[in-house]
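On clarity, I found the account of how folds are encoded harder to follow than it need be. Since the whole study asks how a given chain folds, the encoding of that fold should be made plain. The format is easy to grasp once an entry is in front of the reader. For illustration, here is how one protein appears when written out as sequence plus structure tokens.
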Amino acid sequence: MRIMLIYSSRSKKFDRIAGAIFTTLQNQGHQIQKVKTEESTRPPGLYQYDLIFVGSPVEGFWGGKFSDNLDSFIKKCSGLQGKKSAVFVYPKAIGTGKAMKRIMHRLEEKGSIVIDFRSVKNKTEAEAFATKLGKKKETF
């Protein structure tokens, strides 16, 4: 399966979570590419991918928001129509569900089909999430 991992991060902790997802899927034999929105000059075309992972830490004083970088990146992405996607966030005490819903809404506006979503606090949870979705390759 061809997979794209798009995430926004300003912390080493979230970088490790995204890295755990990347490594787990790569070890399962998938072709995977990773894009950190803060380091990318322009969004890639996503036409060739079977699954798109999208992640951000929950932001905002009361939570409920996600990275502005990720939001503008998704808005500029092409090729999301009909693509299956999975959303993951690093939780906050308040607003985690709302932030996930906002990311899912943004993806659905672009025509993507969100097949799973998860609040991920550590590397172990990230690996479990990636393993679960990596095994679903027969459904794509």
Q: What stands out?
A: The chain has four helices and five strands.
